[in-house]
Prior knowledge:
Blueprint lengths: L1 H6 L1 H16 E3 L14 E5 L2 E4 H18 L5 H4 L2 H23 L6 H10 L1 H4 L10 H8 L3 H22 L6 H12 L1 E4 L6 H5 L6 H10 L5 E2 L2 E10 H7 L4 H16 L3 E10 L6 H20 L4 H8 L11 E6 L5 H7 L11 E3 L2 E11 L6 H34 L5 H7 L3 E7 L14 H7 L2 H6 L6 E2 L4 E11 L2 E2 L2 H34 L10 E4 L10
Antiparallel strand pairs: 1-2, 2-3, 4-15, 5-14, 6-11, 6-13, 7-8, 7-10, 9-10, 12-13
Amino acid sequence: MFDFIRKHTKITMALLFLLIVPSFVLVGMDGASRSGGGGGSVVAVVDGRDITQPEWDLAHQNEVSRLRASMPTLDIKLLDSPEARYGTLERLVRDRVLAATAAKGGLVVPDQKLQRLYAEDKAIAAFRLPDGKFDRAGFQAQTGMAPEQYEAGLRSDLAIRQVMLGVSSTGFASKAAADASLNAFFEKREAQVARFNTADYAAKVNPTDAELAQFYKDNQPLFQAPEEATVEYVVLDLEALRKSVTVDEQDLKKQYEQSTQQLAGKEERRASHILIESPAAAPAAEREKAKAKAGELLAAARKAPDTFADLARKNSQDAGSAPAGGDLDFFARAAMVKPFADAAFAMNKGDISDVVETEFGYHIIRLTDIRLPKQKSYEEMKPVLETEARQQLAQKKFAETAETFSNAVYEQSDSLRPIAERLKLEVKTATRLMRNPAPGATGVLGNPKFLGALFTPDSVDKKRNTEALDMGASQLVSGRITQYTPARTLPLAEVRDAVRTRLHQQRGAELARKEGAEKLAAWKASPATAVLPAALVISRDQSQQLPAP
């Protein structure tokens, strides 16, 4: 029983969630919601606490941003589908259920653990000012939340993990309880579902300008533009230095001559041989006997060279090559023991060697082919040689100039142009850059380390160069902000269409829920009047196949 639970942790967690949820949560289907307070309509209630439409919208917006950052090519239509939005709501409900369970169980996160996590978190460390204080404004601008909100969220996440670990790490369950859970998970039922789609009712909504303005005022976090900046940056890397170095023609010719000599050592030969085994440690009499036999075979081979393959098949004691008539295929000099290689590489094609003694015994070698490496002309090789030379010179220059670059961007912190002109580097510009990499961003503009350095108070407020940052792979970069726009709430005139769309969705959901409640009451009072579609077969283990609410 316990083995099943340990081996099927995911199923166990799913069952736990399914069993816990009913005692905590009441969800409005298809986004249908009931009227709530000023924070927006309520779409679900978990343990007496509301999940409002704006909370759902913001959570889904964050989920979409996260997915697009990791998968830039993902179709935005899929992310904003009813199924995807409902998936976000399910995750919100799950987290609230687990948080409520943690609270009821008295699970708390000590301050010491939070402090340790903060000390280890590089993202948090980026907001530490030189005097050790925390940059509250910078943190809020990037994350959209106050530090206290972040801490509360982190405490909740850690408490939720304790609940989940408490289940996945515990194997104590009676057979009856486990059977009940599994039976509930695999049980099938038939259900008829009446749908009241938000979109059908949203088309009937026609909000006034005053209603749009009020909705905008009540939900301003949904209509914020993040901080952004225009930056200049200079990259010192091998690619930039390769363009600036000068290659000497004489050096290229010397390199060509060296490559010619190296290619000469890559000649390959093909030979067949007959081996009469006689290990070096064998008695002298046995070695003499083997040598004499090799001599007899040599005489026969020279008398009738065309019979060499037959002689090898019948007499060679090299089990690997004898069936092929002694053929060894092509080999380099280094592939053979020295006496054998010296003999083979001193012969002409068609020659048969004298008896050659090696540590394996006595060989008769017949050279069957010679393969010389193809040597290209200098003009053919020049582009390759020049590329290699530029790479070597660039590596040398990088080692020499890295310190110069680092010192210059620090000492002349109000501009990157002096060091760019000195090292013949390009000053590049990027606009609308944000603290987090944009979807699909590559190079230094997609590097969190560089972006984090750009958005420090020293760079934002004083427009100073960042320090020379090591990006790895022989690459240094420094940048500076030339224009900064803080995070701001977009004016109503600019987001009026988005406000209208969201208000349509909310009002449509309210109307759908209202009519659904009225129909439900009427059908309960008179079941015979209920008009419902054909029944669906449903089960918890096949929930992914169900149509989205």
